[in-house]
Amino acid sequence: MCLITFAYQQHPEYSLIMVANRDEFYARPTLDMHFWENHPNVLAGKDLQQQGTWLGINKSGKLAAVTNFRDGKNIENNLKSRGALTRHFLTEAIPAKTYLQELATEGSLYGGFNLLLGDTTGLYYCSNKGALTKQITPGVYGLSNAYLDSHWPKVEAAKQGLARLIKSEFSIQSLAHLLHSEHQAADEDLPSTGISYEWEKQLSASFINTPSYGTRATTVLLQKNSGETQIAEFRFGPSGKVGEEHFALLMKPIG
């Protein structure tokens, strides 16, 4: 997952509105979003290489999403998969605050990450790259491959677009479209994350499409104050859209 924008307690009907893009190599084996056979309360995609997920929910009122923290100057090897962070939280009966306390000491065992966790007590953000763990207050936020609300062009564009859209009539399709721009940032606005100029440029778009790597899924989550939740996953390959799926469920409200 490489770009997430969400509005928390910013709409009279929907307590949480989230749109997220997962960027990955097309060759990496993946299962589409589904209810997991061994954990039927969990709705998430699955990375078949490491058996984790980038974004998912649990009917008991949990949400987890992870992005990698991009740092090409310090290559990390032999660390635990970031997808295990979300898998563990969604499949185990562990409160968000307890899990965050564990990660305060164990987070260094994982590749660089940004983690969003939600349960009935609230929504939280943490990273193992020096950011302070915090409970999310009402607002509109953006997250990519640096700290929460870093001033990257695509993060700012996503936040501003979401803030505008939720003030008017919106749909799952219009929310998904927010993160489908292939516009690349101007050279002077590119972040400096230690990778080549060519990659920095390509990855500056909200929607990435290269021959081998790109945006493979856009996920839209709408949760009403009552806990009624809609989730849609739009899937893509190197030649464009390859499918979509919609889910509707009742769960304990996040936060």
Automatic annotation (TrEMBL):
InterPro entries xref list: TANGO2
Q: Name one Pfam family in it.
A: TANGO2
Specify the protein name.
NRDE family protein
Task: Look up and give the organism this protein is from.
Answer: Neptunomonas japonica JAMM 1380
Taxonomic path: Bacteria, Pseudomonadati, Pseudomonadota, Gammaproteobacteria, Oceanospirillales
